[in-house]
Amino acid sequence: MLAAFGSTTTLCAVCRRWGGLRVCAACVASHADDSAARCPRCALRLPVRSAPCVECLRDAPPQTHTVCAVDYGFPWDTLLRRLKFEGQVDLARPLGRLLAQAIAAAATPDPDLVTAVPLSPTRLASRGYNQAWLIARQVAAARKRPIVHLLERHLDTPEQASLDRAQRLANLRSAFGVPSAAQPRLRGRRVALVDDVMTTGATVAECAGTLLSAGAAEVQVWAVARTPAG
Ligand SMILES: [Zn+2]
Ligand SMILES: [Zn+2]
Fold first, then answer.
1. Where in the chain is the domain with CATH 3.40.50.2020?
2. What is the distance between the terminal CA atoms of the chain, rounded to a whole angstrom?
3. Which one of the ligands is nearest to 13 CA?
4. Is this model's pTM higher than 0.85 or not?
5. Which residues fall inside 5 Å of ion ligand 1, going by CB?
6. 133-174 pLDDT, tens digit each
7. Helix, strand, or coil here: 119?
8. Are the CB atoms for 150 and 185 separated by under 8 Å?
9. Ligand 1 centre and the CA of 41: distance in Å?
10. Crossing angle between the packed helical segments 131-143 and 76-85, to the nearest 10 degrees
11. Contact call for residues 51 and 86 (beta carbons, < 8 A)
12. 36-226 maps to which CATH number?
């Protein structure tokens, strides 16, 4: 009996209509603007498609490319919060699919390995999962690339929103490392680093720098959502 309802048994997390997908095609079409012009280096939304943004021209981040699917705003902010804080891990699949489509459209060089921004062991234990890893798993499967643990997080960083830029950077310094067991696998490889949300870019820049110092040939960043310029 259930099979007969196979295509109509999922409630869209955005419009609450029944269908076959957790985020329906109509909601993706109306809330994800895949024609948005973004800086190729940091994925900041730009008024017109152009070379890197002013910020990247002045002080380029360590990653060679950044791909983000959407701006951090309705309804994606709600879905990302539900995935991260409310245990709604089934949202990793539609969010990962959205990101995989953006990566295909951006046509950046295919990485050898996919990894994710890690949580500290303490935070991983209290949350029970790493939302960035869940998204990375979806994207790695879609891109048919291996997903590997390449980074560890030594320090818990306080909620970044309450800190200014200098405090954030100080907090992030030496927060990440590459476990010695992962180093041979990493050397000379092109890595894609996945995160759920890219806010200032400080976290992914710190992770990318750590991967490059440990021998990665190149790092690109893939994140579902990018916080627009303030
Ligand atoms: Zn919908
Ligand atoms: Zn930029």
1. 36-226
2. 51
3. 1
4. yes
5. 12, 14-15, 24, 27
6. 999 999 999 999 999 999 999 876 665 556 677 777 777 777
7. coil
8. yes
9. 31
10. 110
11. no
12. 3.40.50.2020
